[in-house]
Write a structure and sequence with these properties.
By secondary structure, the chain is an alpha/beta fold. Helix content is 54%, strand content 17%. Helix 1 runs antiparallel to helix 7 and helix 7 crosses helix 8.
């Protein structure tokens, strides 16, 4: 079993951690992308009489139930012996409390992520000091290269997000509750709506990465809402999926023509649904990154023009 467990919901920050650990030459590690999965995994590992040498977890911008349940588990005497590093934009009250109750616990702001190799060296002294220094420098270069900026402090607001935001639109209250619980359990920030009008108002008022829209709604069809969202510049970048209870080729065709990325079905396995949502989230991230690159290029070209003048 690898010596380190990494728990981080953000794809970007998880990549940054990978680069940092690779540079620190710590060997292999295991990655999980939700606090609920991390809790289940650690419970199973403990039942088998095994443990990790080091646990690194990101903290959410706002405390959540699954994050707090993970911290409660890590307080028990057996788990409290495992060194824990919590990374976050701010130190949450639950993290502050944990630091006072758990000896082998450290908190590090993301702005100081280059100190991770030194902390790893304290816990796992297999890393040469010179290599650890190189790892810190390599990690700083990784951050600069990922965001196109020389300073981690400047780049941090671009990197830190509240998680992937999902809007789920369905006229059935029970369906909305079930899917919201499923998505929240896997680290998504989910809001729901029960009609086209409510869905459009919520979408226009919040920056959602992914929207899942039921096809049959009380005030119209899902492809109508999809078309309206794609025509609105404020919501056009979101990745949209139409969800329906039955497969009909005419429905799928209308939805794709309206701008949906794909169709999902209510009778498919939850693992497949979550895989689709993950693909939609990556699709939205790529579109956003492309737009940000274009805006950055426009600023650069503007500065070049000023320099020529």
């Amino acid at each position: 079993m690898p010596g380190i467990l990494v728990v981080e919901r953000s794809t970007t920050l998880n990549h940054l951690l990978q680069r940092t650990l690779q540079a620190a030459q710590v060997g292999s590690w295991e990655e999980l992308h939700s606090f609920a999965d991390a809790l289940d995994h650690l419970q199973r590992v403990a039942d088998m009489g095994q443990s990790y040498q080091f646990i690194i977890t990101g903290s959410p911008p706002r405390s959540s139930r699954d994050f707090e349940e993970l911290l409660i588990f890590l307080r028990n005497p057996r788990q409290a012996r495992i060194p824990l590093l919590v990374l976050g934009l701010d130190k949450l009250p639950v993290v502050e409390q944990l630091l006072g109750q758990r000896a082998e616990t450290h908190f590090l702001p993301w702005t100081q992520f280059a100190r991770i190799p030194a902390l790893v060296r304290q816990v796992m002294p297999v890393v040469e000091p010179a290599l650890a220094e190189e790892a810190g420098a390599a990690a700083a270069e990784a951050m600069a290269g990922m965001v196109g900026a020389p300073s981690p402090e400047l780049a941090l607001p671009h990197l830190i997000a509240d998680g992937v935001r999902v809007l789920f639109v369905d006229d059935s209250a029970s369906v909305r509750i079930a899917y919201r619980q499923l998505l929240d359990r896997h680290g998504y920030l989910t809001e729901t709506a029960g009609s086209i009008s409510e869905g459009y108002l919520k979408a226009a008022g919040g920056a959602f990465d992914v929207m899942v829209i039921d096809y049959f709604l009380p005030d119209g069809n899902g492809d109508e809402l999809c078309r309206r969202l794609k025509q609105n510049p404020a919501t056009a970048d979101a990745a949209i999926s139409i969800i329906t209870g039955t497969y009909r080729e005419d429905v799928v065709k209308r939805c794709l023509e309206a701008g949906a990325v794909e169709c999902t079905f209510k009778n498919e396995a939850k693992e497949l649904f979550l895989a689709r949502i993950g693909g939609l989230a990556r699709h939205a991230e790529m579109r956003r990154a492309k737009r940000d690159d274009a805006e950055r290029m426009q600023r650069v070209l503007g500065m070049v023009g000023d320099g020529v003048l």
